């Protein structure tokens, strides 16, 4: 069996060099990137809920940086539509609006239903990948990891979209990822019993893909996404 071990050869008469240096440590991401990741994860995982006011000082202290990279990170997050900056006050986490939900759901249905038709007949690789993701989501649900289950949910649907073979549609769908995660986590927290129904519907979608029934896959995806629209409109502010 081939191994990846690398052995160092030491010359018996050679003393340690005076210029020997300790092993290099992993380089941290830039300060602004660390703030950006911290805030974004907090918003997506609902540690920072809609309406929360974030101040530069609090974020700088939480991440361990100065205020300058905090400002840079907040500007990026405002462009992405997650926060609204208020000069000399801070940044408010924007609530999910009914219009945003409607727009995301409409886009999801257009992209996912089109991709589902192209995905049939499903390849063995797609079936295996969806089986893996479904098993992971079941484990996360059992452990109460709603944020993790929401991420896996997005991966499940994204795999079907990618299998359609249209790279432009895949990139468009990926741009919805953060918005979908935020909405999905909100709905799961409001209705934790929904995860059981989600798993059942994913199982049904997978069975329809195995059987090669394109119209059944499309119908199941439509109902799966449409349910989310009706519930989220009433539950997410």
How does this model look, in words?
With 237 residues, the chain is mainly alpha-helical. It is built from 10 helices and 3 strands, in the order H-E-H-H-E-E-H-H-H-H-H-H-H. It has a 3-stranded antiparallel sheet. 28% of the residues are buried. The model is unreliable at 1-20 (pLDDT under 50).
What keywords describe this structure?
237 residues, mainly alpha, three-stranded antiparallel sheet, 3 strands, disordered N terminus
Write the layout of secondary structure elements.
Layout: H1 31-44, E1 53-54, H2 56-63, H3 67-79, E2 83-86, E3 90-93, H4 98-119, H5 124-142, H6 146-163, H7 167-174, H8 177-190, H9 194-211, H10 214-235
Antiparallel strand pairs: 1-3, 2-3
Low-confidence stretches: 1-20
The radius of gyration computed from the alpha-carbon positions, rounded to a whole number of angstroms, is 23 Å
Q: How far apart, in Å, are the first and last alpha carbons?
A: 58 Å
Structural class: mainly alpha
Can you summarize this structure?
This protein is mainly alpha-helical and 237 residues long.
């Amino acid at each position: 069996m081939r191994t990846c071990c690398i052995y160092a050869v030491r010359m018996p008469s050679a003393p340690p060099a005076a210029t020997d240096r300790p092993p290099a440590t992993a380089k941290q991401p830039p300060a602004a990137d660390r703030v950006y990741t911290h805030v974004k994860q907090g918003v997506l995982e609902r540690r920072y809920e809609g309406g929360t006011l974030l101040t530069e000082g609090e974020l700088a202290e939480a991440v361990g940086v100065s205020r300058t990279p905090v400002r840079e990170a907040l500007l990026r997050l405002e462009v992405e539509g997650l926060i609204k900056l208020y000069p000399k006050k801070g940044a408010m986490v924007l609530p999910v609006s009914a219009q945003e939900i409607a727009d995301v759901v409409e886009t999801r249905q257009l992209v996912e239903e089109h991709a589902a038709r192209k995905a049939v007949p499903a390849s063995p690789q797609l079936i295996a990948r969806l089986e893996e993701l479904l098993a992971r989501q079941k484990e996360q649900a059992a452990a109460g990891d709603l944020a993790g289950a929401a991420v896996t949910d997005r991966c499940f649907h994204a795999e079907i979209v990618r299998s359609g073979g249209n790279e432009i549609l895949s990139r468009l769908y990926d741009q919805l990822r953060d918005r979908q995660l935020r909405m999905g986590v909100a709905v799961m927290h409001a209705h934790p019993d929904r995860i059981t129904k989600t798993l059942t519907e994913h199982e049904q979608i997978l069975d329809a893909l195995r059987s090669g029934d394109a119209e059944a896959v499309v119908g199941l995806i439509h109902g799966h996404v449409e349910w989310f629209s009706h519930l989220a409109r009433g539950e997410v502010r």
